[in-house]
Amino acid sequence: MDKEEIKSLINRWAFYADARKAEAQVALFADIFENSTIMPDGSKQTFTDKAELCAGIKSALGAFQKTFHMNGQTEITENHATSYCIAHHFRADGTVLVMYIRYEDDFVLENNEVKFSQRVLHIEQVEER
């Protein structure tokens, strides 16, 4: 798989999150997929259904007025990537929740497009400002 296509896929996830385009985020996944979020305490939430994932994204981001995801370094191999992101979540009261995230992604080609087959979002640290 082309590394630039993989990097573009990772970046589009962040852009769509900030633009509140949950349906577009979900469309980045293959037909058969797994998306998991692992919290700092080790608790985990996993989605394998696109409608449920879409609702989960809307619910998670709906608590914030605005978000800003800044992607950092990415290591890409043939069909896997590890990438880092600092995500700022702005609340109506002016406070900010900052998440330090590590993504572990696996990819497949589906209809000649690179898609996520598995995405694990590790929230490594959370900071309140």
TrEMBL record:
SnoaL-like domain boundaries: 2-119
Gene3D superfamilies, sorted: 3.10.450.50
Source domain of life: Bacteria
InterPro entries in the record: NTF2-like_dom_sf, SnoaL-like
A Pfam family the protein falls into: SnoaL_4
Protein name (Swiss-Prot/TrEMBL): Nuclear transport factor 2 family protein
